[in-house]
Amino acid sequence: MATLNSNVPSGPLDTKWENHKFNSKLINPANKRKYRIIVVGAGLAGASAAATLAELGYEVQNFVFHDSPRRAHSVAAQGGINAAKNYQNDGDSVHRLFYDTIKGGDFRSREANVHRLAEVSVQIIDQCAAQGVPFAREYGGLLDNRSFGGAQVSRTFYARGQTGQQLLLGAYSALSRNVANGGVKLHTHSEMLDLVVVDGQAKGIMVRNLQTGELTRHTADAVVLATGGYGNVFNLSTYARGSNTTAIWRAYRRGACFGNPCFTQIHPTCIPVSGDYQSKLTLMSESLRNDGRIWAPAKVGDKRPPGEIPEGERDYFLERMYGAFGNLAPRDVASRAAKTVCDEGRGVGATGLGVYLDFAESIKRLGDEKIRERYGNLFSMYHEITDEDAYKAPMRIYPAVHYTMGGLWVDYNLMSNLPGLFVLGEANFSDHGANRLGASALMQGLSDGYFVLPSTISNYLATQAPAKRPPVSHAVFSEVETDVRNRIQRYIDGKGKRTPGSYHKELGKIMWEYCGMARNRPSLEKALGLLGNLREEYRSNLHVSGEAAEWNQSLESAGRVEDFIELGELMCRDALEREESCGGHFREEFQYTKDDPEVRSGLVNPGDVKRDDARFAHVAAWEFAGPDRPPVRNQEELKYEEVKMSTRSYK
Amino acid sequence: MKVQLKVWRQKNRNSPGKFVTYDSPDLNPNMSFLEMLDVVNESLASKSEDPIAFDHDCREGICGTCSLVIDGKPHGPHKGVATCQTYMRSFKEGDQIVIEPFRARAFPLVKDLVVDRKAFDRIQQKGGFISVRTGSAPDANSIPVPKENADLAMDAAQCIGCGACVAACKNASAMLFVSAKVSHLGLLPQGQPERHRRVKAMVDQMDEEGFGACTVTGSCEAVCPKSISLDFIARMNRDYLVALAKGDPKKPAAGGA
Amino acid sequence: MKLLLQIWRSSLGKKYVMALTGGALLLFVLGHMAGNLQFFLPPTYINAYGHFLQTTPELLWPSRIGLLAMVGLHISAAISLTVANRAARPTRYAGAISSQGATLAARTMIWSGLVVASFIVYHLLHYTLTLPQVNGYQVFTGQSMDFDGLVEPKTGYHDIFAMIVLGFRIPVVSGFYLLSVGLLSIHLGHGVASMFQSLGLRSHVWWPRIATSARVLSVVIFLGYAAIPVSVLLGRGSDYVNDVRTSGKSVHLSPSSLSPSK
């Protein structure tokens, strides 16, 4: 059994982080450069961490599988980044951001982490503005804000519809500066294929150069994983095609616990699937919900074009169900409502899997020009993809997998149960509980990388003698390299019939169908059976083209897809064991019905998620027990000192 | 629909390449161009042929990984979008589509349609940043930025670093890319202290990498998925001129505490 | 010196050289055009103007040397940039290259420039050095013609007016001239605007104005220069040259020997 000590400092919630920083161990500047830190990934979390650690004087080695660190998928975040600046004077505060985030996460996140996130959010904006991130501004030259994703205050900072890109370029510029001055050694086209654990501590990684196929060993005093989320387990998602779970999955197989793997976020406003060939789902920024109204025909099977459906026969279901938040209800709530409507047979479009997002009223109220100014790029993107004009007819949207709240388990220092292994950003499980609020992912990635890890990593490094990391000639490195080589050889030797891509598609269908927006015991058990078969077939019927020692995209996918299949099984197991509904995890057996007092008092709707705090107010941290044995489920109890767990109501 | 593809195939940098013609399987006009290549690759793999290597990632036009020159035009027939946002409905039944990698000395070929664009990173490392240490920043609203400058900086900053400007330019010039970087930071008050040092260092590295010069043909602007304007090249030219005129800064006297 | 080297070594620096020398040459083209247009005044004006230039070496020679330097720098920077630009794209595209927003003028600057340069050489031999071998008379009329000896009877000045008329009466000469002036105009239509771009004198407000002005200017230049040979071919000055003298001897050119002059 792994020991899960959250290491949350004692004291009042709002002084924990200050005290912790003060109590953290310091490392003498002359010694810092003797510590080598490996950072895998260069998205918001990875690039900001690598740059900041280098500024502090550590020797940083940064690995990315892309050709450039600027390609990481943080680049695609559209909406914005939250910060408790209260520049709008609308009653925001660190405490309110903290509370909204805890509540948004359906009381399944760690209180102290979330509070720290809200505190640090303020510094992130300062840092990014100083780096030259061109945030939107008002005519007076000061920063503009908007309200976003279920928040009732305007605390979201943004750079047109490309906030993620601009923040990433900011972090990338900091990284570039440190590459230039020698603080960071950058390894591009370098995919981490395994973690090297020496005497129970993470001390290095195995890397494959994607251009040449060459395998190399890298040793360090600590290893930081900032490799993003694993939503591509569903194959179709808003993730980049390259996003994968391999780095964290192989770390899991080496002993790092995986926290809440079943917590997946389904984003409500994506462009619906159009066919089997589809490789990618495109997100339409949530900001569209500020001016668009979501509806479906009130009658089942109403196939008239939207323009011909009279006002009285439309069901603005979010406004009907969630009066106070209406079209701005949180993502999990809005997604599920859309699914319910479609399940009732009221979905629109050729597939019946879609609802309308209608701007007619806003266009009437504000005029074409104003709407074009606010959302022009999104409307033209929609036009490119669907060949439809959203100024004339409503958009069709449907939920899609967008984010994974689960990830490797970490303590307050962002260190996993494997000492020396740190996990940042979406790759860890820590701050969003069972559901992430809009504009909070960017905040967490940068908070972890710029401010949290650089302060907390010294607590671990101080326990390690400087310049005493194991040499790459150490026996463990050889063992791990052999494992990696054998695995690659197994793929190359595969003389089966099916490509990794076809397995990925099948995996995605199983996951979406049985472990998607709504889950139940029979569906999850069925999925486990199917995935077991899929895993077996993958071993015997895989076809990989090309050779190991060359650029080989088929070989790259082979490893990633196998990891996804194994992860899929773990997600189903986790969803099965969590016999409650919370946030993005919706078990159909656990929902409010019309007989519940909360429904009768008007607090929630029938069909809303029903938590079970008595049994499940904990983090499930899964531990690998060997290839052929079921994983072990560890628990970290969530203790709430400041906030009372309550029923989440958005009515 | 079906189309015929004429694709550049090259095993690696050192072996010779050639065009190979493939007939596509049946396609849906709503497929993206890259999904069409996925489908072709699946059919190649099922025949035990080597799939066509091509770069791609986000597939929503923002990461800048996808490249391809389609019928002589980087990122395909449409203005203001990347290859991944190009859809098969832009082509006709039976069309022959020529697909080539980006061609430039500074972008050496890796395999088939994949080129190495690290030259852009090296340019960036020479000065594409504001030197601010984490934690040392003043309150964000203590530095007001005129809205029009912030908007213009954003116009430049949205460059996705794909390299289509280089691919389209008859001189394989990287001026649009470099000028976007230089202008983004040069337009903001935060970027002023390093403004001239930055432009000098980045332009010199650009020359070092072997990109060509600008002959103001405007091809870069025409193919840029973010429609970045040639105005920024003028801005860079101006800044570089000032930087040259100012000369290198005086070396500080040696010594210290 | 270090600065000059820096300028020459950088791609942007060479563009500055192109722009500045191009700007100087543009001024010359305009001045030269203004001087030439005196052709439409009575012959004595242009002859007096020519005489003034030829007898003012302190003005003439610095101008000539300066122009030569400008042309030299402009051409050598252009060639060295072109060589570097070609090297930057070692493999060409096979796909049907659309113009991708580039005008023909923009894509062919080096060719229009080189044709104009070769024209300048010819033009100097023809009208400045007045080599009889290049004026085409021997070929087209069987007679020899020495422009150098043309003298205005009244003043004894070199008869520039007659030289122009006689020179442009040869259709091939006029044709080459018109072609070159046309190419020069195309060259300038792109070049003048680019000059502002290269020197960084451009913004989204000014660019459309600059680009339009450059096009208008290039058309004006074309018309201004082309007017002369066209008017000669249409008959201007044919009466005047019927009895000009060369080196004291009368020259009589039978009207029929040269079409289309009457």
Largest interface: A-B, 83 and 81 residues
- What is the approximate shape of chain A? globular
| Mean pLDDT value of chain A | 95
SS content category of chain A: alpha+beta
Q: How many structural domains can be distinguished in the coordinates of chain C?
A: 1
Low-confidence parts of chain A, pLDDT < 50 over ≥5 residues? none
| Terminus-to-terminus distance of chain C | 59 Å
Query: Helical percent range of chain C?
Result: 55-70%
Total count of strands of chain A: 19
In terms of DSSP E residues, the strand content of chain C is under 5%
How would you characterize this protein structure?
The complex is a heterotrimer of chains A (651), B (257) and C (262). Chain A folds into three domains: 13-263 and 405-461, 3-Layer(bba) Sandwich (FAD/NAD(P)-binding domain), CATH 3.50.50; 267-402, Flavocytochrome C3, Chain A, domain 1, CATH 3.90.700.10; 482-616, Up-down Bundle (Methane Monooxygenase Hydroxylase, Chain G, domain 1), CATH 1.20.58. Helices cover 37% and strands 14% of the residues of chain A. Chain A has helices at residues 16-23, 29-32, 44-56, 94-104, 111-131, 163-180, 246-253, 317-321, 331-346, 360-366, 368-386, 441-461, 475-493, 500-515, 521-541, 553-577, 597-600, 613-616, and strands at 36-40, 59-63, 81-82, 156-157, 184-187, 190-198, 201-209, 215-219, 222-225, 258-259, 264-270, 293-297, 314-315, 355-358, 395-404, 407-408, 421-423, 618-623, 632-637. In chain A, a hairpin with a 2-residue loop joins strand 6 and strand 7. In chain B, helix 3 (147-157) packs antiparallel against helix 5. Chain B is elongated and about 70 Å long. The termini of chain B are far apart. With 262 residues, chain C is mostly helical. Chain C has one domain (12-85, 107-251): 3 helical TM bundles of succinate and fumarate reductases, CATH 1.20.1300. Chain C has helices at residues 2-9, 11-36, 43-54, 57-88, 104-107, 109-128, 137-141, 160-168, 171-198, 206-233, and strands at 150-151, 245-246, 249-250. In chain C, strands 1-2-3 form a three-stranded antiparallel sheet, with helices on one face. In chain C, a hairpin with a 2-residue loop joins strand 2 and strand 3. In chain C, 34% of the residues are buried. Residues 252-262 of chain C have low confidence and may be disordered. The chains are: A alpha+beta (651), B alpha+beta (257), C mainly alpha (262). The interface between A and B is large, with 83 and 81 residues.
